[in-house]
Design goal:
Blueprint lengths: L5 H17 L4 H11 L3 H7 L4 H4 L7 H18 L3 H36 L2 H11 L4 H7 L1 H28 L8 H11 L4 H14 L8 H10 L3 H30 L1 H31 L1
Helix pairs in contact: 1-2, 1-5, 1-6, 2-3, 5-6, 5-10, 5-11, 6-13, 7-14, 8-9, 8-14, 9-13, 9-14, 10-11, 10-13, 12-13
Length: 293
């Protein structure tokens, strides 16, 4: 399960590093101070001398990608000679925006997920209802061929519904921690005064080394060339647009989830309710009626 504050944690570390570095603190001392002032296990490992991407290897959800993005930004700024503090500040800002998207998605998903979980209990409610009426539906379920068939079909439908619901919920959450990062890294590289070709090479190496998804940046560079304006601000603007698009997409998926969750409800959970709750009750009623005659 994805922790909802995971991107906020990385953003906090990046922001504090940026402030400390801007104040003249050395990188090693900055990591030590951040490790001492936060609950970040990754920061503590880095302060102890472990490489950032290795320190974040056993984190979960979107965090590994976010930490690798921080490592890539650090690497690009260091290699290109760009000021490190502004680069980390920009990256922290992007992570906070995506963290807000995570929180918004969580709020939007809370209702549909709670509804799905409640409906999953309907078959058990049906069994208890039969017992409350005085019919031994459990004996029918566990002691007759008809009951065994109902158990197999009903449990299979519930398992399918649970997996279907989980897949729908996962698909509605933010899929990436680093949209627009390639543009941001290119802007960082060019802020150091390096040539365009060298900036491309630096960013390309960082993307490969830290396993960060490559994105198209050439159209932005071409626009900068045609307009005769510095590319860095255009690249940062494009990065913001891509983060905004990712956030909007997460909102749309979360909003649509309440509708999509009706499919496993109608096709799996309600039939399971009938098979586990209603059919055994009917069989028990009919059997007891026939026996009484």
């Amino acid at each position: 399960m994805i922790r909802q504050l995971e991107l906020t944690e990385v953003a906090t570390v990046a922001q504090r590093l940026a402030v400390l570095l801007a104040a003249g603190v050395s990188p090693a001392s900055a990591w030590a101070h951040v490790a001492a002032s936060t609950n970040s296990l990754v920061a503590r490992r880095v302060a102890a001398g472990v490489a950032l991407d290795e320190a974040a290897a056993d984190t979960t959800g979107l965090q590994p990608e976010a930490w690798r993005g921080l490592a890539a930004a650090w690497s690009v700024a260091t290699e290109s000679g760009s000021p490190l503090a502004p680069a980390l500040r920009d990256y922290a800002l992007s992570l906070r925006e995506l963290g807000e998207a995570q929180r918004d998605a969580r709020v939007a998903l809370a209702g549909p997920v709670a509804t799905a979980r409640m409906v999953m209990a309907l078959p058990a409610v049906g069994v208890l209802f039969g017992i409350a009426l005085g019919f031994d539906t459990l004996a029918t379920l566990f002691g007759t061929p008809v009951g065994w068939t109902c158990l197999a079909v009903g449990c299979g439908l519930l398992l399918l519904a649970a997996r279907w619901n989980a897949r729908l919920v996962r698909s509605a959450r933010p899929a990436s921690a680093t949209p627009g990062l390639a543009c941001e890294l290119m802007a960082i590289a060019m802020a150091g005064g390096t040539s365009l070709d060298r900036a491309r090479a630096i960013v390309g190496r960082a993307l490969v080394r830290f396993d960060v998804a490559a994105e198209e940046v050439e159209s932005v560079l071409e626009l900068s060339r045609r307009a005769g304006v510095p590319a860095a601000e255009l690249l940062r603007s494009e990065a913001r647009e891509r983060r905004a698009a990712a956030r909007s997409a997460a909102h749309e998926r979360a909003a649509a989830l309440s509708v999509w969750l009706m499919l496993p409800l109608g096709l799996c959970v309600l039939p399971a309710f009938l098979v586990l709750g209603v059919v055994p009750l009917l069989v028990t009623v009919i059997t007891s009626t026939v026996t009484s005659f």
